[in-house]
């Protein structure tokens, strides 16, 4: 039983850690350097507005929301499994 408890402790930590890396990579997709080609004929504000019109904002992005939801679900599942094994 002790081996299972160790594995259940490590599993959500690994999954959530990977999800945090995916989240940070997604954040890079919304940086100013990723806006190349957007609003090319205007000022910085034009570029940001054009980018947001096409891609939306980071916090409202469906992929970003799903990553955060996945973190929450896997954390809760790990806690539930650990609780049932102890």
Give the key terms.
about 90 residues, 3 helices, rod-shaped, mainly alpha
Into which percent range does the helicity of residues fall? over 70%
Quaternary: single chain
Strand content: under 5%
Q: What is the number of beta strands?
A: 0
The average pLDDT value, as a whole number, equals 87
Can you write the helix and strand succession as a string?
HHH
Structural class: mainly alpha
Q: Count structural domains.
A: 1
Shape: rod-shaped
Ends distance: 9 Å
Please describe the biggest sheet, giving its number of strands, its sense, and whether it closes into a barrel.
none
Q: Treating each run of at least 4 consecutive H or I residues as one helix, how many helices?
A: 3
How does this model look, in words?
The protein is mainly α and about 90 residues long. The chain has one domain (about 1-85). It has helices spanning about 1-30, 45-55, 60-85. Helix 1 (about 1-30) packs antiparallel against helix 3. The longest helix has 27 residues, at about 1-30. It is rod-shaped, with a radius of gyration of 19 Å. The model has no long low-confidence stretch (mean pLDDT about 85).
What is this structure, in a nutshell?
This protein is mainly alpha-helical. 73% of the residues lie in helices and 0% in strands. It has one domain (2-85).
Q: Which SSEs are present, and which pair or pack?
A:
Blueprint (H helix, E strand, L loop, with lengths): L1 H27 L15 H12 L6 H24 L1
Helix pairs in contact: 1-3
């Amino acid at each position: 039983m002790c081996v299972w408890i160790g594995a259940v402790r490590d599993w959500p930590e690994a999954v959530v850690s990977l999800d945090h890396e995916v989240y940070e990579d997604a954040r890079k997709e919304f940086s100013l350097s990723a806006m190349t080609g957007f609003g090319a004929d205007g000022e910085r504000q034009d570029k940001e507005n054009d980018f947001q019109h096409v891609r939306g904002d980071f916090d409202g992005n469906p992929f970003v929301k799903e990553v955060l939801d996945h973190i929450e679900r896997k954390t809760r599942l790990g806690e539930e499994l650990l609780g049932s094994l102890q």
